[in-house]
Amino acid sequence: xxxxxxxxxxxxxxxxxxxxxxxxxxxxxxxxxxxxxxxxxxxxxxxxxxxxxxxxxxxxxxxxxxxxxxxxxxxxxxxxxxxxxxxxxxxxxxxxxxxxxxxxxxxxxxxxxxxxxxxxxxxxxxxxxxxxxxxxxxxxxxxxxxxxxxxxxxxxxxxxxxxxxxxxxxxxxxxxxxxxxxxxxxxxxxxxxxxxxxxxxxxxxxxxxxxxxxxxxxxxxxxxxxxxxxxxxxxxxxxxxxxxxxxxxxxxxxxxxxxxxxxxxxxxxxxxxxxxxxxxxxxxxxxxxxxxxxxxxxxxxxxxxxxxxxxxxxxxxxxxxxxxxxxxxxxxxxxxxxxxxxxxxxxxxxxxxxxxxxxxxxxxxxxxxxxxxxxxxxxxxxxxxxxxxxxxxxxxxxxxxxxxxxxxxxxxxxxxxxxxxxxxxxxxxxxxxxxxxxxxxxxxxxxxxxxxxxxxxxxxxxxxxxxxxxxxxxxxxxxxxxxxxxxxxxxxxxxxxxxxxxxxxxxxxxxxxxxxxxxxxxxxxxxxxxxxxxxxxxxxxxxxxxxxxx
Length: 550
Ligand code: GLC
Description:
Elements (H helix, E strand, L loop, with lengths): L1 E4 L28 E5 L15 H6 L1 H7 L3 E4 L27 H13 L3 E6 L9 H7 L11 E2 L22 E3 L5 E3 L14 H17 L3 E4 L36 H13 L6 E4 L6 H6 L8 E2 L2 H5 L4 H16 L6 E3 L8 H4 L3 H16 L4 E5 L20 H5 L46 H5 L5 H14 L2 H4 L2 E4 L5 E6 L3 E6 L5 E4 L3 E5 L4 E2 L3 E4 L3 E6 L4
Parallel strand pairs: 1-16, 2-3, 2-12, 3-4, 4-8, 8-9, 9-10, 11-12
Antiparallel strand pairs: 5-7, 6-7, 13-14, 14-15, 15-20, 16-19, 17-20, 18-19
Helix pairs in contact: 5-6, 11-14
Bound molecules: alpha-D-glucopyranose (GLC).
């Protein structure tokens, strides 16, 4: 067994991240906020149709307040034909009638605020639904209507080939031909035509949409595909196939063009013109950490998702490397880093980390590692319950366009979107009211034990680990905003301080590690024995220590 002395209160190595300018709450609340992602259709069903809705979210706000999160982010709840889970928006100033009404949205915002939580909503500016009135006008070729989208003549004899070689993120070409022979661009599904952001009408419309929701009181926006709105001049070929495999690795002519930053700056001005620190969060997959930092310059958005952290393998080397690179990139522009382990597009991390007992153990340790890092943390619904990806959904219930556009070769993202189990043994595990329709995706029959209510009653549950971690993060501001310093540590471990006074130790290896004088144990992801002088950190375990001795 490796022995390691740790003296968290007396370290002299340079700080990796300086303390953020200490600011009284709620100033710059987003710098260290814990933000909870609600995939609305799968969170809680209030009206009994088997699909989550705003009434369901409202009925569970107390649960979220008790979890201790600072803000919630709601995925799209707009009217939508659901060709891409609501990311195909048919009307931007309304609520899908299956999910509620505008009054529900207003009440949700008011009630969340009353419980001390802010509310972010998704905005989808890269594309509309093909059922949006603008696209219907474009199909009819009404004057000026096609200029709101990206229509082009085809190439080759009779224009029968797409205008360029771009590929859709969901598989197949990024172009679809309309009956009169013209082609339109869709970086995602054909039912999601890309907007033309060179058209001032498009820009004005989105500013107006944002004002509509800001006036209702939302605290900001998660900007879908924030790197996609502007395309390279002349729409040049990418020059190779398998373009999406290069996402986040190499420049692409349809993502991360410099022109998007002018749009984001105008949105920052808009957000800043409202009181109460409204924020923007970019969903971006730029080709380098430095390009990611561009999105969070002081006059652009407040946060950008850090998907490199999510993509890192479970190991001390890869995680330390990505943590250092992420912090270095956002420090360059004075922005906080975000830490994301899962979301509605990704395989849940219990499964990514190996599944079964090992995946659960690692996911618990990852939670404490993540919540000890400087910056803002995102929790995807169900992550706090330790839910795995559902890998065996039958073909006939799958809805993700990825499944259809790859002819089943990729089963898509539905496995991370299965409804949340709330209660043991009830029909639909309490997701829907009694007597409701079947849930829109089936909940695995063995999820009862992972439901919220039984977990609340078990002090060692996943949920109570999250509740304790979020609570400690709140009561120890050093965890969000203090300086971070790496300490020397044995191979396959990560030790660092958050100052003043806190230590995080993570053992990612296969052998237990003995810690000498780590301080007082605050929280551990699995059983950790400590007698005040020595402690044993088991494999795949993280622990937080206070340097105040007991
Ligand atoms: C984002 C969303 C994803 C959606 C895509 C297209 O990546 O998170 O769910 O399919 O944008 O809108």
